[in-house]
Amino acid sequence: MKIISIIETVLGGRLLALMTKETRQILRDKQLLFLLTFPPIVQICLYGFALSPDVQDLRLAVADECKTYKSRELTSALVENRVFKMTGAFDNLSSLMKSVERGNVDAGLVIPPDFDREISQGKQATVQLIIDAVDANTAGISQGYATQMIQKYGQGLVSNPITMPVTSQVTYAYNPGLISSWFFVPGVLGVVLTLTGILVSSVTLVKEKDSGTLEQLLMTPADSWEILVAKIVPLFILLNANVLLALAVGKLMFNLPFRGNFLIYMFVSDIYIFVVISIGIFLATSSKNQRQAILTSFFINLPLIQLSGALSPIESMPDFFRLLSYLNPLRYYIQCIRHILLKGVGFEVMWGDILVLACAAIVLSLSSAARFRKQLS
Amino acid sequence: MKKVLAQCKKELAQFVRDRLTLALAFVLPLLSLLLFGFAIRLEIKHIALVVQNFDTGLMSYDLVDRFYNNGQFDAHKWSGTHPLKDALDKGFAKAGIIIPPEFTRELRQGHNAHVQVFVDATDVNNARVIKNSVIGTINGFLQDNKLIPVNLPIKSEIRLWFNPGRRESLYIVPGGIAVVLWIFPSLLASLAMVREKESGTILQVYASSITAVEFLAGKILAYLIISGGMAAFLIFCANLFFNIWFIGDPMPYLVGLLFFLFSSVSFGVLIGTGMNTQNSAVQTVGTAGFLPAMLFSGYIYPIRNVVYPLSLITTIVPTRWFVQLSRDSFVRGSGWIYDWYLPLILAVSGAAFFYFAYANMSKMQLKV
Questions:
Q1: Shortest distance, CA B284 to any CA of chain A (angstroms)
Q2: Which of A101, B155, B157, B238 has minimal Cβ neighbours within 10 Å of its Cβ?
């Protein structure tokens, strides 16, 4: 009997009417629809195309004081892999140094005049490589690469060429082509959902406060939970559409793989949508007007994004910040997205992350609902 | 001039009165700087590595020891049959190595032994770092066991200039200061401009004898002072937390900073003249200011990696030039001879933003 009465209130009663009102309001609001579609598309494209840690086309200048075919071979061995590209040749050391100092080139190779002679006499020749290490990360990778290339070239020079006794077959799992957008775009999918979700849910609620229509809603016989549910359900559906839109953009523009289960993806996203809507409601209940809500959202979004591992890996953060990131729901969501898209694993691996997300969703939605009701009464 | 100063004084008084904007001007920039400076690190220091050793010979143990003792890799307990499936898939290791049976015997007999390496390439950058370390370790192992000659015909001496310890904070923090100093001054200035419109006081300005240039100059001067304070505060904090300071002549930086703040504030005012509500102003600064400053300034990832048509945009983003100037002043120590053109570019961009703001403003005023 009780179930039937609940269904009756939902279908025939106020809740449906309230939901219709909310949906119409959202659909009428051109600015809101714009916020739901345009920024996510632009952000995904910009992040995907602009961010890349690739180490390639580093400008290499050579001061070849030897000028024999061996020294030229060494140079071409270094540039053959596109990590370095030749940008200049200098006759003397000092002009090369100056060029590195100015930042005109990223690396400088100095081949001494006796390079060829030393090798043919069976001695060890020394070449010097100067790397601009302002960008610490790039410098590290290019250093490792240059060492390997010079070593390899040297091994080929010995009269009875050395075959390496140990061959290491390196397999890049999940992203064999090392496409950097495959790292960033899944992270940005999470960031975009967070930004739009918090913004849209807080704005729709605060608007009601701003215009004073919240009081009018209160005077109707509707319960506060009905008002809240009626607000959340249309947002929930819209944000689901948003997830699909973002995924489609990632797929079309960046050819992202989708190796896991689509239903699990939507399931995890739905849990996370509850998290962002709750944060939005929380924000709305704690600010007086739209301006305050938007400005305060800066304080929330910044740590949420920076500590999520969307733009830089979490494993490399200092301990304190890494521990802090465990409190960040976005971290778990992005981890799940990467797991599903790139690794193609399922519940057996992600259950821990999903559990944490679900707990966060429950705690946040209960507390924000409580705040909302308290404010209404 | 008097009018400009009066306008400036009024702005400052208004600014101090609002708690939220005050927090926005000092707390948020510091918070951002700390987050940017501490939380953005690209290179993993302790790479979780699992090794599956099918060999029982001494050499295989020696190799395993080398992996775990060079300070780059951390051992991790795991059980299962395949490192890829049981460690990488589950995400607790970043790399897995399989040493085949007969590894020691093959090497002793002068045959070739294959070692299989699986690297989790979800994080592309660290996949490269891991590969380099694995190969470096194996090469060291071979040399020390006299399996390849120690003295190769060519020795490479590699010098890392400017940042020999490869401190990542030296790269990130100067850039971070630049990004923060773009976002917040422009945000504050745009809010101040729009507030005038929202509350309708802009009409009083139109009706008064103050000209558009004087009005804008007063506003910009006020926010230049505020953001100058912000900049000093941030540089001081950067010195405190990250131990960075000017190397060589700080003059190019200071001159560039002035012009950079001028363009940032003018950009904010320009957005303010174009928008009608504080909401839309914040949104626009967020999209048109924040995103380019983050993505097209090269402050996390090298600017040369931006894909071609977008890379054209980077040249008109002032933050890009100021990031470069910051790094030159805090890490390279270049001085005027190398960096003379950077303050110039920033000055031009500031003037351009000011002109557009002025044009926008006079469009709204009636011609007398």
A1: 11
A2: B157
Q: In order of start, what are the domains of chain B with their CATH numbers?
A: 2-40+166-364 (no CATH), 47-144 (3.40.1710.10)
| Per-residue pLDDT at A327 | 94
Contact (Cβ atoms closer than 8 angstroms) between residue B24 and residue A295: yes
Q: How many angstroms away from the CA of A360 is the closest CA of chain B?
A: 22
Q: Closest to A47 (Cβ–Cβ): which among B28, B159, B295?
A: B295
Complex-level ipTM: 0.86
Written in H, E and C, the secondary structure of A263-307 is HHHHHHHHHHHHHHHHHHHHHHHCCCCHHHHHHHHHHHHHHHHHC
B61-101 pLDDT per residue, tens: 999 999 998 888 988 878 778 877 788 888 888 999 999 99
DSSP A57-108: -EEEEEEESS-SHHHHHHHHHHHTTSSEEEEEEESSHHHHHHHHHHTS-SEE
Long-range contact list for B350-357, CB < 8 A, 24+ apart?
B350/B259, B350/B260, B350/B262, B350/B263, B350/B266, B350/B318, B352/B263, B353/B263, B353/B266, B353/B267, B353/B269, B353/B270, B354/B216, B354/B220, B354/B262, B354/B266, B354/B269, B356/B270, B357/B216, B357/B266, B357/B269, B357/B270, B357/B272, B357/B273
Rounded-to-integer distance, Cα A94 and Cα B135, Å: 34
Q: Which of B40, B118, B328 sits opposite A171 (nearest CB)?
A: B118
The pTM of the full predicted model, rounded to 2 decimals, is 0.89
pLDDT at B247 over 80: yes
H helices present in chain B, as ranges: 2-17, 19-39, 58-69, 83, 103-108, 124-144, 168-198, 201-207, 212-242, 251-274, 278-284, 291-295, 308-314, 318-327, 336-339, 341-364
Give me the pLDDT at residue A161, please. Answer: 64
Reference A287, options A170, A185, A177, A207; nearest CA is A207
Q: What mean pLDDT value characterizes chain B? A: 88
Per-residue pLDDT tens digits for A301-317: 888 998 998 988 888 88
pLDDT of residue A7: 65
Quick check: A154 and B170 CB within 8 A? no
What domains lie within chain A, and their CATH numbers?
Answer: 11-51+178-376 (no CATH), 58-157 (3.40.1710.10)
Sign of CA dihedral A258, A261, A262, A267: negative
CA A237 to each of CA A89, A243, A267, A268: distance values in angstroms, whole numbers, following the listed order:
61, 10, 13, 15
Both structure tokens of B240: 């405190």
A162 with B168: Cβ contact below 8 A? no
pLDDT value for A80? 87
Is the per-residue pLDDT at A377 higher than 70? no
Cross-chain residue pair A167–B307, CB shorter than 8 Å: no
For residue B310 the two structure tokens come to 């977008």
Inter-chain CB proximity B126 and A316 less than 8 Å? yes
